[in-house]
From TrEMBL:
This is HTH tetR-type domain-containing protein. It comes from the Bacteria. InterPro entries: Homeodomain-like_sf (IPR009057), HTH-type_Tx_Regulator (IPR050624), HTH_TetR (IPR001647), Tet_transcr_reg_TetR-rel_C_sf (IPR036271), TetR/AcrR_C (IPR049149). Signal peptide: none annotated. Keywords: DNA-binding. PROSITE patterns: HTH_TETR_2. Residues 1-61 form the HTH tetR-type domain. PANTHER family: ACREF/ENVCD OPERON REPRESSOR-RELATED, ACREF_ENVCD OPERON REPRESSOR-RELATED. One of its GO terms (molecular function) is DNA binding. Pfam families: TetR_C_39, TetR_N.
Length: 203
């Protein structure tokens, strides 16, 4: 494993230990088992390390989602549900949310939201197109519809922006499910899977 990966792994370990926000470059170097000077060869600051870590984490999550979707042999509605389940379960494995939601990390947070939107939109676009072929959906603009769906998730359900109660989250996901059913001309009740497992819901 090269030193750059060692540094990113060390930062991830510190985040998992809830020390990421307070750690220094020296702490990261010690965790990685390398000299502090080696870190500055690859990164200019702790913030740059975290930026690279966010990029790596989301690439890994998106890749896992792609594998799940590409290997599944289900209809578009089931595939959309599977995508959301895969994303949620993957996010649980990482410990970057708390750090992302700190005020001084707003720029990185915005970048992470843009990463979600740009990476997941093509996957959802393909799912919508599959649904059209299966006569489950009617949609003239699959790509734009996918981007709108993700924009809602990325903004409205981000716990770093809003502090909704569990009931509020449920009501909003119910409203979104209803809107998607009507907007995609999907079978009644087909999007209600969005309302399940809304505890700590986010993208």
């Amino acid at each position: 494993m090269d030193k750059k990966e060692l540094i990113l792994n060390a930062m991830m370990d510190l985040l998992a230990e809830e020390k990421g926000a307070a750690c220094s470059v020296s702490d990261i170097a010690k965790k990685a088992g390398i000299g502090k000077g080696s870190i500055y060869y690859y990164f200019k600051s702790k913030e740059e390390i975290f930026d690279a870590l966010v990029e790596r984490v989301y690439n890994e999550i998106i890749d896992k989602c792609k594998v799940v979707i590409d290997t599944s042999k289900v209809n578009a509605i089931e595939k959309l549900s599977l995508l959301i389940q895969s994303y949620r379960s993957s996010m649980i494995l990482y410990s970057i949310d708390e750090y992302l939601h700190q005020q001084n990390n707003a720029a990185i947070h915005q970048k992470s939201l843009a990463k979600i939107l740009s990476s997941l939109s093509p996957i959802i676009t393909d799912i919508i197109k599959q649904g059209i072929d299966e006569r489950l959906f009617q949609c003239d603009r699959p790509e734009e519809t996918a981007e709108i769906i993700l924009s809602i998730y990325c903004f409205l359900f981000d716990p770093g922006i809003f502090s909704w109660t569990q009931e509020q989250v449920y009501n909003k996901t119910k409203a979104l499910a209803d809107l998607l059913e009507r907007g995609l001309m999907a079978p009644e009740g087909s999007m209600q899977f969005l309302c399940s497992s809304v505890t700590n819901f986010h993208l």
